[in-house]
Amino acid sequence: MVKIGIVTGSTRPARVNMQVAEWVRDFAEKMELEAEFEIVDIKEYDFPMFNEDLPPAMANKSYSKDTVNAWSKKIDELDGFIFVTPEYNKSITSSLKNAIDYIGPEWGHKAAGIIGYGSTLGVAASLSLRQILGNLNVATVTPFGAFSLFTDFEGMKTFKPNEVHNATVENVITTTVNWSKGLKTIR
Fold it and tell me: What tens digit of pLDDT does each residue of 2-16 get?
């Protein structure tokens, strides 16, 4: 059994990110794979902007140290990830990049799937995230989900995915679980 974290990519008050993450979790749980799925909401960690003289784990600020320790523990206990990221300015959000940058080794030798969304399906954000994760030794799976703000959301506020995406999302989830199982053997 592997543990897969569905990592949110937005912290905005009016975000639709949680709707997509919850849909992915529910979809994954119905697949009856040998995996546990949980939402890991970066908003719950309330990271300050990464702007320290020392890496956060070594900083003397108790606020960031407590936050980073909780984040580190959560990411370390997971075997793989499915990132749900909106696209902002042809990339991921600054809040997701900030959360990723706060730790390093905890990400390594794990698999990640990516589900993007935006006005252009979140494709640029997904590609940007693949590059960032690759630098941390995260193996990103080839299929990725891509939802349109225009056709998969009502009024760009309510997530109502078209069924045409189901096969791709199933492939993302299955491949992420399988790679997570394989990579678990080398950690």
Answer: 999 999 999 999 899
Number of Cβ within 10 Å of residue 80's Cβ equals 26
- Cα-Cα-Cα-Cα torsion 163, 84, 140, 71, nearest 10 degrees, comes to -150
What sign does the CA torsion over 37, 76, 68, 92 have? negative
Q: Which CATH number fits domain 2-184: 3.40.50.360, 3.40.1280.10, 3.30.365.10, 3.40.30.10?
A: 3.40.50.360
* Phi and psi angles of residue 71, each rounded to the nearest 5 degrees, phi first: -65, -45
Closest CA to 46 of 27, 58, 60, 63: 63
Whether pTM > 0.85 for this model: the answer is yes
